[in-house]
Amino acid sequence: MYPVVLLCAIVLVQAQASARSFYEQGYRMAKTLSPAYSTLASQLKEEAEPDAWGRAIEMAQRHEATLARYFPEQLERLRGMSTAIGTNPTETVALSMFLNRGQQCAQGASAPPATKDGQVYLTWNFETLTAARPLFILPLFSIVENQEGYKFCFLGLPYFFGVPLMNEKGLSLSAASMTINEDGEGLTPFELAVLVMERAANVDEAVEIAKAMPRYSTSDIYWGNWMNWSFTLADAQENVATIEMTTTLFEEIRPESKIVARANHYDYLPDEMTTCYPLAPQYSKGEASACFGSRMRASRMWRLLEDNYGKIDLELVKTFTADTEGGEPFMGRPSGTWWTIERHSHTLPRDQYVWNDVPYNPQSDIDYVIEQFNLVYEPKRRVLWWSSGHASRGYFIPIFLAPWFGVEGPTIETYQGPQKNYARVLNSWVKVSDELFGLAEVVLGLGASTAQLFGYTAGIEPNEGSVALGAFRPYGTETPSVAE
Length: 484
What we know:
Blueprint: E1 5-9, H1 14-19, H2 22-32, H3 34-47, H4 50-70, H5 72-85, H6 89-98, E2 104-110, E3 121-129, H7 133-137, E4 141-144, E5 152-157, E6 161-167, E7 172-178, H8 189-199, H9 203-212, E8 228-234, E9 240-245, E10 250-253, E11 259-262, H10 285-307, H11 314-321, H12 349-356, E12 369-378, E13 383-388, E14 397-400, H13 402-405, H14 420-436, E15 441-446, E16 456-460
């Protein structure tokens, strides 16, 4: 069994966060975790050949002008980060653009009357390269706070690398990436997700913001690979939706049935907008295989939601993320492979090499896409359920966000589930750190063996973040002032 969960909760003092410039917020975020930022930066540059990195810098130079107009507070943060990391500001913009690509995911959303308990649920199976597993055994959950916007929970390094998950109003978001055949300037899907979480209280407002903003697209054969995102959204008002978008196209689907399922392809935009289209220059047998797998995962989620319509509750929706019964046999492999929701390594990279008629390279085993974690969101109750690795082999631990958001909702004191001891260590220690360490960042290790005895805890210098005034509010001049 994989380590159950290693979580990080970052909570900020509102007066301190709001008093700092956006530049200083970015500086302090990167300074606190500078090794992590530097490692991500060096890895991305090393993977890209010089020509590809040169294209990234050219795209980032154009993107700086877009940020200055539509998301200036984000540009100030990135400039502060570049000072802390010791990189060129344009390079930092490039890193923020192109690190945020590659989620290979199945998602599902359901709300009454599809649920039997009156609750709203959003699920997310997060899949990426096997080599990246250490990043997700030790994930970073942050609570980002500012008086000018909504508090929200962020997975990753705030405002730089990751995904915003849920805000204090209960608006919840998951994302699936894909390749695209279009070029255009605008905010990247990552930046749009942050913008939405900062300023939208519900699905309607989220759709309005994403639709109003200019949207970035690139068909670059290297950087455009899995760069574009679609969103699955749910809120506390019993709304669910999916958004598909490019620079020129936008589709919002809010079904009357109140169920949504999707994976890594477009269901509503034209097929020719992605490289899943046979006439696309990037199209190959490998691309065809990936597109087929995506459609199989989405169709399986649809089947589970439809077959259980009106009967869905928390325990049932957890089983959706652990499903291995979908899909079809492929190259002699059973149906419970990467074609279904819980993506396993039954279909090995060797199969893909055979499929593409090229010699097998064992090194590719660490590049194979596999499930890293699962999330079940409860927007009404402000709870996230986390399962590391494969949900069918582990269990979910609740993260109670209501106390951090300052809203009514369940807390660890009310939890009576089977993982009560693990959850109590996790949530209680975060509460203690709030009182004893000045709202410090805390890392909790709950290894599969040691967690039965005690929780490992460590206090770290606080990470800084802020939601910003934004494109819909006046933007004031920021003064880069950093206290060393």
